[in-house]
Amino acid sequence: FILYNTTQEEGKLHSDIEDGQYMVVYQGYNFPIDESGTVHMYYADNAIYARNALTEEMTETPLFLREENVGSEEKRYTYTVVLNRFKHISSWTMEKANLQIIVNDMYPDGQICGVVPITDSEVPDKQLLCLDNYDYINFVSGLYYLTRNEDGEILPIWKWEKRQGYLAGYEWPCSYFQLVSQPIQNPECFYCMFVFYDMQGNATSTELIPLVSGN
To answer: 202: helix, coil or strand?
Structure first.
């Protein structure tokens, strides 16, 4: 996981990361381990942000991309959004969906290759959605507090205390939604955390590792 500390000010690091609120911005799987037991994870200096083409506003943090397949020539990710469609001023529909995003030499900023609806049905919905049929797209992320067990060990992120009643995000017109790749902002606010599983499926997390060396 790559985590963003939302409570760190630009150019000023808190001395105690325990007090921070964190947002997940990347989730990958199956990282290689070399003969010395060192885990290797590739996270580019550039990350994918969302941009409003009309106002040129950009998200302050990278999109929360979940790795689906990362190859040498193409990377595939999913990103969860909420789509709104207004019938009239007091009536609208909301649809939760996963954007399927590819990044390659042809689409270095990322390209949406599918919009898959999220339903409660156990049978996957094969009908893809079209962004043009919706008015607004919402990018929403939860905030978490670093949480440890009774032995002082960091728990996996899904067991962290969540900030209740608060979501950070943006709402933009679908017609002006763009993806853009650029260097990550405030890299000193980003941390990496690995979660290891044993043969019984038990999860163990590492301490937070600064993404920028020397911090």
So the answer is: coil
